[in-house]
Amino acid sequence: MFVLQLISLWINFQCLRHKAPEIYRIYKTKKVENLSISSVLLEETAYTFLLTYNIWQQYPLLAYCEYFVLFIQNLLILLALSKYSTYDSNEKEKFNNRSIPLYAIATFCFYLLISYIGLVPAAWMRFLTIFVIPITASSKIVQLKTIITNKDGSQVNRSVAKMAAFNNVARILTNFAETYDKIMIIYLFVSLILNTSIVIACAVYKYGPIRIAKDKKKKKTT
């Protein structure tokens, strides 16, 4: 049991440092041009459903604390998107590029609140948690397809993908030992397979298409 607690603490620490440098850089430079609001919203949706599901199941805090950490980190990113995004003064639409993150923050926090006080039906809670699996898979499959299509993994941070894969393995072990929640185990297995695939693809296409073309040219000349 002590070993499982250490594993959970290690996962939480890894998640804490996962986005902390990025958040610090965003608030220091006040630049959010390279951030995709749709990607952040998709991530936060998945983290919200996973967090509320684990709270609803009344699992030990250490068994899911990383989702709470990631939930808070993405809220800070959404706040930065609202604060530092460029705003067109001629834009008359109600939902502009600054208001969308604020509405999203309010929605996520409201859903967390009503889930915590037990206003979300059990069937709906399970359905939304299962729905997280295709949400997570689709985003990672798109990333994997981009790497393979462009034959370039140089733009992807392999250390982040490796850390995510290791976290998946560790969390699978703790889930088998502590909760044996089939929905969470399936989600973690799917994430593990896709994160590992991204790591392998990045290793194969580490130097990008330019280096691969040079290597082929050398073979022809020899």
UniProtKB/TrEMBL annotation:
It comes from the Eukaryota. Pfam families: PQ-loop (PF04193). The chain crosses the membrane at residues 61-81, 102-124, 184-208. It is found in: Membrane. One of its GO terms (cellular component) is membrane. It is a multi-pass membrane protein. InterPro entries: MannP-dilichol_defect-1, PQ-loop_rpt. Residues 1-18 form the signal peptide. Its main location: membrane. Keywords: Membrane, Signal, Transmembrane, Transmembrane helix. PANTHER family: MANNOSE-P-DOLICHOL UTILIZATION DEFECT 1 LEC35 -RELATED, SOLUTE CARRIER FAMILY 66 MEMBER 3. This is Solute carrier family 66 member 3. It comes from Rotaria socialis. The lineage of its organism: Eukaryota, Metazoa, Spiralia, Gnathifera, Rotifera.
